Amino acid sequence: MTRTTAGLMAALFVCAGLPALAQVDLSGSWQSKNHEDALERGAGPNPGDFSGIPFNESGRAFALMNSQSQISMPERICAFYSQWHMMVGTFGEKIWNEVDPVTGKTVAWVVGAWEDRAPMTIWMDGRPQPSKNAPHSQAGFTTGVWEGNILTATTTHMLTGYLRRNGVMTSDQATMITHFIKHGDMLTLFSEMDDPIYLSEPYYISRTFVTAPTLMNSGGPPCVVGDEGVPEGAVPHYLPGKNPLVDEMGKLYGIPREAAMGGAETAYPAFRDKIKDKFVMGAKCQKNCGGPAGN
Amino acid sequence: MPMRNTRIETLGILALLATLLAALPALAQPARGGRGGAPATPKTAAPVDLTGYWVSIVDEDWRFRMVTPVPGDYMGVPMTAASKQVADAWDPAKDEAAGEQCKSYGAPAILRVPEHLHLTWQDDQTMKLETDSGTQTRLFHFGDWKPAGGPPTWQGDSTASWEGVAGGRGFGAAPGAGGSETSDPTGRGDLKVTTTHLKAGYLRKNGVPYSENAQLTEYYDIVKEKNGDTMLVVTIVTTDPQYLREPFIITSHFKKQANNDGWKPTPCSAKW
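^ inputs. structure came back:
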């Protein structure tokens, strides 16, 4: 091989490595920072707090019929743990890539399981979507594509699950789109939920993780269906108009019912004008107040 | 024969190189306004277009943002004991009487306010962010800008740089284009803004404080959804050795608007 050829070969190898630069390395252990929506992402939201949810009438009616005891039903015991739980759950995430053993190329990114949520495998190899009639699962089916330095993952074929852990539901026709945005030692997830059954417009939320100082587990125990004492065939619920917790947000924070009951308009600034004269600020925080002792 | 073989080998490798370079458009192309044209500026080198009108989508921390949070409700903020002491003494009437009604509209909190944003270029080196709620203005200075000095302000002094500039530093960017060391050859990127020299204010309207020693780091990312929505996602990191146990990290998001619909300049309020 001549000197010229050797130089060109070296240049070739350099260029061949460059496309990988467009793909950000997301792998690692990511610790959750629940500084926003801390209650929702911790102990769980207040009952009757649907503020900011772009419900349609079906979505709101369904949520108001919910009794928290439904999660003791064998059929619903795992309903908390859809892929959306990645956005609203408490815990961090372990992320890694699966590679083709021959080419070394990434065929999938995996967001590891944690506390009953199934792992999210984001297929990067261009495989086709399953038929819309294919079986749905807790994990769903996810494909990904790099859009510049952002990984965009689209998840379909999920089971019915919770959008907010107080009865706000997603249907099995929902689509979840998640953007993975990395900035140094921070990873921001920006996610969209579309659901033609229960939502009138997309629901967007975001959260940020930071590099964890210690190795996280790659998985967790699967959600196991058990008997929690709900009789077979019984569905704990409230009849329409009978939900006793509908004014809970008013009692705790002075938030008018029309705001707590959600709807797309409750997420926009103009909505403040509608509730300004109805809002009565409470005297003092009574519970779940945070502070120096914890969040 | 050996000479001919070498030529063929060389031509083949050159062809491969050309193919690879063609597949790297951002690497092969100069930044806008770069080689062959006027010198690139932060404005012309912008990897994403942040300009226009944006409306906040408030579906996180709703009770802290859309209404005035009740006294003592500090959920989520990694406060110090000193911070709680200050917050427990919150008195909005006193703030208003002192002309300090904008305390919850400072840079660390302004993107949590339900509002519309208007982002424009003030000049080639300066991006301007205006809000209708609280009628605040922030200036993001690129390049070697030096603050003029003077007392601290609600919006502080902000320096800015593009991350992931096509042809940015390390990829042949023109000097002054604002690229950072983390350049991304694909041409997608984000705006990083660092803000200091802040007048002490509130992270939340119910008196959760930040001090004059607070520092703010923000990342502005654009996400285009398949449904046609263009979203602005801002990751906001506030550090404050006096009032925060660890960096306070939140993320606000905004939807792009076609025009200024809903733009309603409203003065600061300490109570609502």
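The CA atoms of residues 87 and 223 of chain A lie 18 Å apart. The domain at 28-45+65-211 of chain A is CATH 2.40.128 (Lipocalin).
thumbs up if we can close this ticket
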